[in-house]
Structures are given as C-alpha cells and as structure tokens.
Amino acid sequence: MNADSHNGDAADGGKLSVMPRATPPSVPCPPPPLPDLERRLTGIVSSIDAIVWEFDPVSGHFTFVSEKAVELLGYPLGAWLEEPDFWPSHLHPEDREMAVKFCADATQRLENHEFEYRMLAADGRAVWLKDFVRVDSLNGRAVRLRGVMVDITSRKRIEAELRKNHALLERIFDSTEICIAYLDRDFNFLRVNRAYAVTGRQTPEFFVGKNHFALYPGDEAEAIFREVVRTGQPYTTHARPFVYVDQPERGVTYWNWTITPVKDASGHVDSLFFVLLDVTHEVRVEEAIRASEARYRLLFDRNPLPLWVCDLDTCRILAVNETAVRHYGYSAGEFRSLTIAQLSAQPDLDPHATALRDSLQRPNRTVECHHRRRDESIIVVELQGCPIDYDGRTALLVIAHDVTARKNLEEQLLRSQRLENLGMLAAGIAHDFNNILSPILMAGQLLRAEPGASSADQRLLDTLVQSAERGAGLVRQILAFAHGTGGERHAVQLKHVARDILSLIEETFPPSIRLDHSIPADLWPTKANATQIHQVLLNLCVNARDAMPNGGTLRLHARNVVLDAAALPAAPDARAGRFLCLEVGDTGTGIPPDVFARIWEPFFTTKPQGKGTGLGLSTVRAIVANHEGFATVDTAVGQGTTFRIYLPVVETDLDTSSADAATRAIPRGDGELILVVDDEASVRDLLGVTLTTHGYTVALAAHGIEAALVADTHRRSLRLVITDLVMPQLGGEAFVQLLRRQHPHVPILAVTGSPGWAKVGVPILYKPFKPETLLAAVHSLLHPDAKPSAG
Questions:
Q1: Is 45 helix (H, G, I), strand (E, B) or coil?
Q2: DSSP-assigned letter for residue 331
C-alpha cells in the first residue's frame, strides 16, 4: 500500500500515499533473528488461515505477504510484492473507492482500523475480505502498515441468505391471511401481523404493548396460555368458538389455535407465538352440509319413489328407503343382502349387472327392467341412477319408477291401434266381398224363384244361396269385429235366442258334450240385435266345445242380476245397474296365462290351421261393447273357463212390429222409373233385372257423372235413385248432394258394401241383401204412407 500525506488521494498514478516520499532516517537495525526462531515464526504465519501482510506506505509496496495469498486469490507472491498499486488495482470496482478512501483516512489519522471489501481473484471470483490493519508511526507519520486479511466470503453468503430469509419471513408475516401475534411471557403484544390487526379491526401499532387478555378476556383461554408458559409445550385446538366482546354483531366465530413457546438459551419460555386461523366459514359450511344431509336423508327416507344406494363395484344394495321396502315387500335387512341383479326377473342378466350399472352411470339415462317382488309378482320399472359418495366410497343412487300400469295402458293402446288398423283393413275387404256376394245371392234367389226348375237344379241353387249367405255372415262377423256395429237394435227377449242356441248344440255337438242349461222365462228385456247376440253365444259355445276334446260339461245359463257399485265384476267397463247376464262355461283345459293375455286379439288363435279364424272372441268383444255391455272371464288351467256377458236391460215393451221378411208379400212396381248407379257391372245388372222382373222401369249408370246426365234426361219421369256410395269419378256421397240440389223431390236409396255411412242422410241397404229386402225398401220409399201387406 502506498500513502501520500499531502492529499490522501490516489493521485500519483493511482498510488495511495499517507506520508511524503523521502528517504527514511537511519534507524539502528536489530540483530538478525536466530534461524530457529525465524523458522518458527514462518511456520506460525503459514498456519494462519488468512493473508498476513506488511505494507510500506512510503514506497507503496507490500514488503511481506504470506503464502495464503496465493491459495486464496491465486496471484503469485511476486505480483503482490513487485507490482505498484497491486492492492487498489485488484479491488472490486464497486468497493475500490470506498476501501481506498477508508484506509487512507484512517492511516492519515494514524488509527488502527478494520473494514470489509471485495478483491477480484485471478480466476475472476469476488472474494470478501475483512482486513484488520495496524498503523505504525514515527514522528506523527505512518511508516508501516501490518495486517491480516481474513476470507469472509462464506460468512457474507450466509448473511445474504439470512437477509433474504428475513425479508421473506417479513413478507410472509405481513402478507399471510393467517393471524400471527408475538407475545411476551406475560401475554403483552410485542408485534402482530397485518391479518391479526385487520381481524381485530385495528392497526398493528394499536396492539403493541397491550395485554392480550385485557383486550380479549377469557379465563379458560388465559389458563391455556399459562399452561404453555409453565410446561414449555405447544398447544393446538380446532374450531374453538370466540365472541368479540366489542363486536357482538359478528356473532360466534370459530378459530384454529396454535400457541408455540419461544425459549431462551437457558430453556426458559420468554415469549410466545400465537397463530390463529379463522375457520368460521368452514364451520358454518359444515353445519350447512350436516343440515343439508339431514334434509336429503329426509328426502331419501320419505320419497314416494323407491330409492336405494348400491356399491358401484359389487352392485350390492347398501341402503334403501321405506317406499322401496313397502313396494317390493323385502325388509331393509333383506334388501341389503341383495344385489340389483338379484332383483331382476330377467334370467339372462349377468350376476354383477355390469351393463345395467354402466348404463345407470350415464347422465339422463333411463333403463327399463322387470323386477320380481317378494311375493313373486313381476313389475316393470324404469331405473335412473347417478354416482354419489357414500361413506367414503363411490356408490350409485338408484330411483325406481314403477311403470307397470303405464305399460299396460300403452299395450292396450297399441292393441286398440292394431284393432283400428285391422278394422280399416276389414272394412275394405268387406266392401269387396259384399260386391262379389251381392250378385251371387240375388242371382241365386232370382233363379230359385223361377218356375219349372228341376229338384236337382233347386238343390244346386239352394247350395249356391246358402254358400253366399255363409260368406255374407263371415263378412258381417268381420265388420262386427272391426266396428262393433252391423244392425239395428230393438227391445228383445233374448231367451228365444238362447233356446235357439240350445237346439243347435243338441243337434250338432258331439254326445260327449253334456249340456247344463238354465234359461228362465222371466228374463228382463234388453235392447239388442238378436242376430248379433246369437253370434256371440254361438262363438262362445263353439270355443267351449273345442276346449273339451275328450268331452265335458257345457253350461249355458241366463239370469237377471243387479250389480252394486261396491262389488263390481273385474272388468274395465263394469258399472252398477240392472243387467241380463249370459253365462257360457266349460270344464275343459282352461286358458294358460300367456294365452289369456291375448284372447281378445283379432286373428289370434291356438287352434290348428284351418280350425279357427281368430275372430271369434274379438267379435264377441266388439258386439258386447256396441251393446253397451261388458264381459268377464274366469279360467283355471285344467279346470275350465267361464265367460259372462252383461247386457243392460230396458224398461220398455218388446218390439213386436217386425215380422220375418219371408212372411210378407213381395211388393211389385207399376212401371215407375228407377235409376240404378253402381260401378260394379254385375251388381248394377242384377239390380236392374230384379227391379224389372218386379214391374219397375230401370235406367243404369256406372258412376255419378253419368247418373247426373241420366237424371237430367229423365227429369219428369224419374221416381227413385238407387246408388252405390263408393264409386270412381263422382262418388256416391257427392252424387247424393248433387241430386238433392237438382232433384230435391226424388227419393234416394243408398247401397254399399262398406260400413260407416250412417251420416250420409239417406236410407242405406248394406250389401249383400236379398231381393225381397231391396223390393221392400223400394216400395216403402215410393209409397211412404202405405202399410206393408202381410202374406
């Protein structure tokens, strides 16, 4: 180090001067040290973990530097001793000015000093040194500087880390939302963080010096604090309630506490860290959750739908509500021993119900299943599920909606729709068949009435007419099934119909069928179509016969009954009132359950091909419904079946005005002109022949447009129009409306093979019909005031 006492600056080429440069005065030199002492001193200096140095402030050169300098900074000793201004030139640029000035000033004052700075090592490292400097002076001037440079790089690094950590802790202390208070052993506040102050609605400075329990008194809490001081053990508590005395509007708050004692060197507690976390929100959320769980438990237990919880892995039922217990018949304990697969009535369901479980986990997914109740009855249920957490494991909440009744109604609706579609088909078939049968029936009867026919010819004609009538009967049966209609109803005494059926049974059924009958003479009258009721009884009796292939007893009973609303038969249309009950029973095979569900379906039959049409019972049902009645069925496999038909009675005199058409004289015409309109040539021609044969004049037309022209041509002489209702071009209904406008005084008789024309507004004959029926209708329209003559 080189010092200049004139200015104290690094002025002369950067050299540090602390005294004038001059030849030092002659000083007596001490005798040279003993060699062994020199070696000892050299060893001592070398062993010091620091740079020992000596500096001549006059020459500005180091006169001694220990070998530690080479190890510490990497420069050879020659550089230290020979280079001018070695020390200032190797100082860290940021420390150079400070270090040089500090050392120069202290040396100028002849003061021993110490200071810290950085030097740059040969490899570029910055090495922190603490330099202890002793100033030797003579005559008020510094003549020698001796010192020790101690490496404090590690200490500086630690101090920097400590400062960093301290700053970090300060930031955490002030920024954390956790409330922290630092108290002395008497519980006076030494310091609080921002969160603690904000929670107390004060500033941090407000608390310093005040006693905790003077602000927040509490004997129990104070006892806890004193116990921590006494034992030196920390204390922790959770969700401890606390009420701010000065802020009652905050209500009860809840805190997690931790009190940590801080001990001095002797192990005595001298202060406390008090850490608090406000868990009021969490506590209230937990309370709300518990209340919510209680509400949901109530919803689960009192839900009107069956509910259960099942394990997602095993599908075993874990919990079940009371509705499920009542609806299924199992106890809660029995439910918990089952899996959802064991509830199923489907034998092909896999034991773990994997597919069902996977389906129920999908949102908004409904799965339809058949379940078996404890009483072995089968119900149809729609299941919906959602995954839930149940006692720490994933489970499935399942809602079961019993849709058995709805499914039955849907099945009935589908059956009704099928019946409606079949009815439409039947109506179309009936129309075509009636057009085919009409000319056969009329031609056969006309030929049979011709004189001179041989007996063989008469037999052939009888066969022809009977076959046509059987075909017409089949068509009427189809129409009765399709529409439940097919004839007028009058107040009649059905005992005659029942007795006719008895006669038929006795004549045609095999001897192995024993007849048990009861037909009282005092049966109440009912408004009915005798032909249709005859058909109902015949169908039921034939079915009873077929159910007893090895013989048995057939019952045909009729009786008057009064039904009470409190004890009605099991039938959808059953109602209270007075009824005539017709009962047909057998002791045959009975009806199995799978067949029983379909007995009313049209075309469904268990008879061999060619032995049954499948229309018998469906026709019975349609006719009974049209008569405003209802039917019941009792059956047992191996014991037999009983059908009961209930028909409402009427309070009226029996209709005796109608007589059999065959007993009346066939009326004849007197040349009246009748226009016949039909698109079927065979029907049209035979109508014309029938009318011409019986004294009428006939004009023919194939459709409505042609008929309108003919009617205009014969405007003055036209007496009656007979028209089909289903024709191409101008149809019958449109033709009727046109005719009414243009020829309002001409009567109209409609003929059709299709039902459903009741609202057309004119008299209608349904094909096929007998010639005498046609002639009687024509006569009544031409002579409305005339009474029919009995033959």
A1: helix
A2: -
Collapsed DSSP state (helix, strand, coil) of residue 617? helix
pTM, rounded to two decimals: 0.41
Phi and psi for 386 in degrees, rounded to 5?
Answer: -150, 140
- What whole-number distance in Å separates Cα of residue 664 and Cα of residue 165? 129
Q: Which three-class secondary structure state does DSSP give residue 212?
A: helix
From residue 290, alpha-carbon distances to 18, 229, 255, 303 in Å are 85, 38, 19, 19
Write the class of the CATH domain 661-782: alpha beta
What pLDDT does residue 177 have? Answer: 84
Residue 21: per-residue pLDDT:
39
Q: Which CATH superfamily is domain 10-157 in?
A: PAS domain (3.30.450.20)
Cβ proximity of 724 and 680 under 8 Å = yes
Report domain 494-648's class: alpha beta
Q: How far apart are CA 62 and CA 84, in angstroms?
A: 9
Long-range contacts from 228-232, C-beta under 8 angstroms, 24+ separation? 228/259, 228/261, 228/269, 228/272, 229/185, 229/261, 229/269, 229/272, 232/261, 232/263, 232/267, 232/269
* Cα–Cα distance, 344 to 353 (Å, whole number): 9
Percent of the chain with pLDDT over 90: 42
CATH architecture label of 176-283: 2-Layer Sandwich (3.30)
CA-CA distance, 738 to 712, in Å (whole number)?
Answer: 11
As a whole number of angstroms, the distance between CA 519 and CA 315 comes to: 63
Q: Where are the domains of the chain?
A: 10-157, 176-283, 303-402, 494-648, 661-782
DSSP annotation string for 401-415: EE-HHHHHHHHHHHH
At 28 the pLDDT is: 53
Question: Which distant-in-sequence residues (6+ apart) come within 8 Å of 168 by Cβ?
Answer: none
CATH number for the region 303-402 comes to 3.30.450.20
The three-class DSSP label of residue 581 is strand
